[in-house]
Amino acid sequence: MDEEILEIPPFNPSGWQVVVKTLIGLIVGIFIAFLIFITLMLVGWLVKSALANSMWEGVVNPLLPLMLIVIAFVSIVVWMILIAWIFNLLYTDKYYDMSRMFSLSLLINVILFILFIPLYALFASSPDELFFVLGFHIIFAVFASYTAMEMSTNPNYAAVHLIGTSIAMTVALLMFWWAYKLINMSDFSTVRVLLALPPILAYFCLPLFHDMWEKLYYKFYSMWNNFFYIPSLNEVMVDASEEDEVNIDTL
To answer: What is the chain's mean pLDDT, rounded?
Structure first.
């Protein structure tokens, strides 16, 4: 059996798929940002008191870190369900296993929730740094969830998916850091904008940059440069058996 028969080609999204998936990500990101914004309005007294106390007394309400990490976890799980369901509905040929996408993303977010607890506790006394931790948590968790979802569609190109999502996460983090430096942290209205920004950046950048990179890699593949392809065990065994046959024939 030839290697070409076993080798699975990378996915090549069309231009319309890139646009549609990016728009879906942006719409879902705005929806999640709206939920975060509404939540912060409902518990605005807690954030305001934390900001005021940190400025004048150096004391922060201990409920603030707990509230922020719960907001991050819930918003990411809601996004995960929406994106997995929409992509499974529109692009069944690629996102065919919704249960696997959901279970992998949920497991990753539970693990990240546990790992981020010490980080929230470490910066609990400083709301400025705490809000940056929240933004980083959302962007990184969305990156991990989206990467797991893409890897589940075609594990042979796990490296391709990881590179594409890493580029997107880097862009999103740089944009969030830039906004974080510009926003006045003593003004609660601007803080709400800052906390609503990470989901918009993450959900917009990930589909856009990942799919653009995927299209670029397909051009390398079409020129017989499939350098990030990870062969399966069956392919490795077939290659080994072919080498043994060649050795036997030359004796």
So the answer is: 80
Q: Which pairs count as long-range contacts for 149-154, CB under 8 Å and 24+ apart, including other chains?
A: 149/83, 149/84, 149/87, 149/95, 149/101, 149/104, 149/105, 150/210, 152/97, 152/100, 152/101, 152/104, 153/11, 153/94, 153/95, 153/96, 153/97, 154/8, 154/10, 154/11, 154/94
Which residues constitute the domain of residue 203?
11-245
Question: Does 201 reside within a domain?
Answer: yes
What mean pLDDT do residues 112-121 have? Answer: 91
What is the DSSP code string of 130-177? HHHHHHHHHHHHHHHHHHHHHHHH-GGGHHHHHHHHHHHHHHHHHHHH
| Mean pLDDT to the nearest integer, 173-199 | 78
Closest CA to 109 of 78, 63, 155, 153: 78
The answer to whether residue 97 is domain-embedded is yes
For residue 1, being part of any structural domain is answered with no
Q: The tokens of 55 are what?
A: 């400025």
Phi, psi (deg, nearest 5) at residue 107: -60, -45
Q: For the chain, what is the domain count?
A: 1
Helix (H, G, I), strand (E, B), or coil: what is residue 57?
coil
pLDDT-above-70 percentage for the chain:
77
The answer to whether position 142 is within a domain reads yes
C-alpha to C-alpha distance for 96 and 87, rounded to whole angstroms: 9
Asked whether the predicted pLDDT for residue 22 surpasses 60, the reply is: yes
pTM (two decimals): 0.81
